[in-house]
Amino acid sequence: MSEAQRFEISVSRWIGPLLVIFLGATRPRRWAAVSKESIQVRMGFGFSARIERATITKAELDTRLVTSWGVHGWRGRWLVNGGSRGMVSLQVDPRQEAKVFGFGVKLSALRLSMENPQGLLLALGT
After folding, report:
1. CA 68, CA 71: separation in Å to the nearest integer?
2. 32-73 pLDDT, tens digit each
3. Phi–psi pair at 84, nearest 5 degrees
4. What are the DSSP E strand ranges found in the chain?
5. What is the H or E stretch that residue 29 is in?
6. What is the DSSP letter of 117?
7. Beta carbons of 107 and 92 less than 8 angstroms apart
8. Which residues, in sequence order, are CB contacts of 31 under 8 Å at separation 6+?
9. Domain residues for 20?
10. Model confidence at 126, in pLDDT bands (50, 70, 90)?
11. What's the total number of domains in the chain?
12. Which of 85, 81, 56, 53 has the alpha carbon at shortest distance from 69?
């Protein structure tokens, strides 16, 4: 596996302590890492995924309204965030495996709050 470039998931000050309590999402345990083959995402013990880069059909800045924080999703569309700024959206086809609180889910879309959203997109080649 090639060397991965790591990016931190952004977290608002007021939500940070809650993410640590409920997800174990301390600063070292909330990130996205881009390698030549994949992007891996971790948010404490609440969310983990390894997405093959070849399956990412679209990656872009996301300006849609964000009304919840943490790990949320349904029917393949997941939000993994600690704030409302620096949002990035990834579309995936075919669906990829992810784990939410240890349970397997299929992932078709992922929204992330990133400290460096442009850097993540650049690393993904978009």
Report:
1. 9
2. 999 999 999 999 999 999 999 999 999 999 999 999 999 999
3. -105, -5
4. 5-8, 30-34, 38-43, 47-52, 56-61, 70-74, 77-81, 87-100, 103-113
5. none
6. H
7. yes
8. 6, 7, 8, 9, 41, 42
9. 5-124
10. confident
11. 1
12. 81
